[in-house]
Amino acid sequence: xxxxxxxxxxxxxxxxxxxxxxxxxxxxxxxxxxxxxxxxxxxxxxxxxxxxxxxxxxxxxxxxxxxxxxxxxxxxxxxxxxxxxxxxxxxxxxxxxxxxxxxxxxxxxxxxxxxxxxxxxxxxxxx
Length: 127
Fold this sequence. Notes:
Elements: E1 2-3, E2 7-12, E3 15-24, H1 30-47, H2 49-66, H3 68-79, H4 83-101, E4 109-113, E5 120-124
Antiparallel strand pairs: 1-2, 2-3, 4-5
């Protein structure tokens, strides 16, 4: 992958004339803008409930499975990975998304003993 002042280009290492992707380079504030959008979306993600969060994450896994042949072929072109290994990597990616699709149903907190003596520390996970 190479970057110029305005474009990022990904090429097949075995055939540099094979351009896989060419996109505009992100600006200086791209990360800040992304964080702002994520922060704005967070209340809706929380209010959607565990079932909605699980379904959204599971849908990503389903989309990966549906495009698995295309994604594996892309990995072969982009990094020269053997097809068998690329297929396994795509399958593992979908499995990871399915694993995290169950996370919304995990307990939302924990109680821990303090290191300094009597008392309890409480933690609460929030999406």
